[in-house]
Amino acid sequence: MKNVTDSCLSWGYWPSAGSFGFNTDILSTNLINLSVVLGVLIFFGKGVCASCSLSDLLDNRKQRILNTIRNSEELRGGAIEQLEKVRARLRKVQTEADRFLANGYSEIEKEKLNLINSSYKTLEQLENYKNETIQFEQQRVINQVRQRVFQQALRVALGTLNSCLNGELHLRTISANINMLGSIKEIGN
């Protein structure tokens, strides 16, 4: 044993391995890697399940895959049903939206016509008010002109009477007018 230990410890005993490099021969390296992997699988695969064989494992895997596919198909079918329900609801909502839109437009048109009619009525009332105001102003101006004409005529008549009447004629005219006013006052009572 001493010889083995000495030989392991002695670096001079081990021959030089040469240089480090890559093996570029693909076939030989792949065969070596494949044989190592298969050996490891066989060696460790025996101890995993004594009653399980490779075909049982493959059958189990196949069943899980088929179950997953079956579940996926069921989920797909459910999703398609839900999609059809959602599409039907969307069509219903679009129909209602179109109906509301059409009703909205008709309501807008009604409101527009009502607003136009109301505006015409308001304009007509304003036109009538304007015409009444013009007539009132015309009547007021006519009355003012009449008063001024009457006042002017009265001044001219008084001027003419004053120049034509003497004192005695003037007193008789005033007395006659006072008597006339007194008789009008008695008739009013």
TrEMBL record:
Give compartment(s): Membrane; Plastid, Chloroplast thylakoid membrane
Q: Which UniProt keywords apply?
A: ATP synthesis, CF(0), Chloroplast, Hydrogen ion transport, Ion transport, Membrane, Plastid, Thylakoid, Transmembrane, Transmembrane helix, Transport
The membrane-spanning stretches of this chain are 31-54
Give any Gene Ontology cellular component: chloroplast thylakoid membrane
Which is an annotated Pfam family here? ATP-synt_B
Task: Write down the membrane topology.
Answer: Single-pass membrane protein
Q: Does the keyword Transmembrane apply?
A: yes
Q: Which InterPro entries match?
A: ATP_synth_b/b'su_bac/chlpt
Tagged with keyword Acetylation = no
A molecular function GO annotation: proton-transporting ATP synthase activity, rotational mechanism
So what does this one do?
Answer: F(1)F(0) ATP synthase produces ATP from ADP in the presence of a proton or sodium gradient. F-type ATPases consist of two structural domains, F(1) containing the extramembraneous catalytic core and F(0) containing the membrane proton channel, linked together by a central stalk and a peripheral stalk. During catalysis, ATP synthesis in the catalytic domain of F(1) is coupled via a rotary mechanism of the central stalk subunits to proton translocation. Component of the F(0) channel, it forms part of the peripheral stalk, linking F(1) to F(0).
**HAMAP family assigned:** ATP_synth_b_bprime
Q: What family does this chain come from, according to its entry?
A: Belongs to the ATPase B chain family.
Under the subunit heading, UniProt states: F-type ATPases have 2 components, F(1) - the catalytic core - and F(0) - the membrane proton channel. F(1) has five subunits: alpha(3), beta(3), gamma(1), delta(1), epsilon(1). F(0) has four main subunits: a(1), b(1), b'(1) and c(10-14). The alpha and beta chains form an alternating ring which encloses part of the gamma chain. F(1) is attached to F(0) by a central stalk formed by the gamma and epsilon chains, while a peripheral stalk is formed by the delta, b and b' chains.
An additional note in the Swiss-Prot or TrEMBL entry is:
In plastids the F-type ATPase is also known as CF(1)CF(0).
Q: What is this protein called?
A: ATP synthase subunit b, chloroplastic
